Structures are given as structure tokens and as C-alpha cells.
Write a sequence for this structure.
């Protein structure tokens, strides 16, 4: 469980780092798109007002189209990265859920072990108490049996003497 927790923490850190990189890339893409859009509007406005030649306009359009194509590639890379991030996040969440389920089972097993150990120590104490009572009872029995044996021996001796003298 410790290893799994460390792996989850590492994955969480990596996901946060990836998310920050994706957010940064998205901000840059959005900013670049705004620049291209503004540049395109400025170029068209300048051409309509006659401030630039057709060749300059065509050259500007070509440059902006090239920039847009490059930005579109970056957008696709971003979308691919976002998809990978979302897949990673799903795997992380699944792993975290499995860890939490496993940890709950571990805690349940630990509680069962502790309850069982408590029952064992309680049972052991009861056994030791019962054994002490048994040992005390056996000692009393042994003492009583010794008195009985001594009394029986006296009885047998007295009976034998009686039988010998009076029978």
C-alpha cells in the first residue's frame, strides 16, 4: 500500500505538471490566434484603403496562411496532449479508487486482526484464570485425598485391630 500511495502521489504530481503545460500551451495558442486574426484584419483593412499593394497584400496573406497552418499543427498537438492528459487522469482516478478500496479493505482486515488479537488475549487471560482455579482446586483435592488416604489407613488399621480383637 505504501508503494501504491507513492505511485499515486507521483502520478498526481506528473498530472499537475502536464496540466500546467497544457494550460500554458493553450494560452499561447489562443494568443497567437488572436495575433493572426488581428494581423489578417489589419492587412485586409490596409489593402481595402489602398495603403498597400496587391503584391504586399498577397505576400501578407501567404505569410498569415503559413502562420495559421503552423498554429493549426500546434492546436492538433495540443488536442493530442489534452487527450493523453484526459486518459492519464482517468487512469489516475481509477488507480486512486482502487487504492482507496484496497486501503479500506486493509483497514477492515487490520480491525479484524486487532479484534481477534483482543479476543485471543482475553481468552488467554480467562484460560490462565481457569488454570489457576483448576490448580488451586487440584491442590485442595490432593490435600483432601491425602487426608482421606490417611483417614482410610487409620480406619483400616483400626478395623483390622477391631476384627483381630473382637471378631
Amino acid at each position: 500500500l505504501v508503494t501504491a500511495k507513492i505511485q499515486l502521489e507521483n502520478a498526481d504530481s506528473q498530472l499537475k505538471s502536464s496540466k500546467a503545460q497544457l494550460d500554458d500551451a493553450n494560452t499561447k495558442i489562443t494568443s497567437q490566434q488572436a495575433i493572426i486574426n488581428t494581423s489578417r484584419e489589419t492587412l485586409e483593412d490596409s489593402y481595402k484603403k489602398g495603403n498597400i499593394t496587391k503584391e504586399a497584400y498577397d505576400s501578407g496573406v501567404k505569410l498569415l496562411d503559413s502562420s495559421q497552418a503552423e498554429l493549426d499543427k500546434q492546436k492538433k498537438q495540443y488536442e493530442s496532449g489534452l487527450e493523453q492528459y484526459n486518459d492519464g487522469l482517468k487512469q489516475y482516478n481509477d488507480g486512486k479508487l482502487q487504492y482507496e478500496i484496497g486501503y479500506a479493505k486493509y483497514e477492515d482486515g487490520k480491525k479484524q486482526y486487532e479484534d481477534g488479537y483482543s479476543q485471543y488475549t482475553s481468552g488467554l487471560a480467562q484460560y490462565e484464570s481457569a488454570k489457576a482455579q483448576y490448580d488451586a482446586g487440584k491442590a485442595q483435592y490432593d490435600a483432601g485425598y491425602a487426608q482421606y488416604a490417611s483417614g482410610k489407613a487409620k480406619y483400616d488399621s483400626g478395623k483390622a485391630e477391631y476384627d483381630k480383637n473382637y471378631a
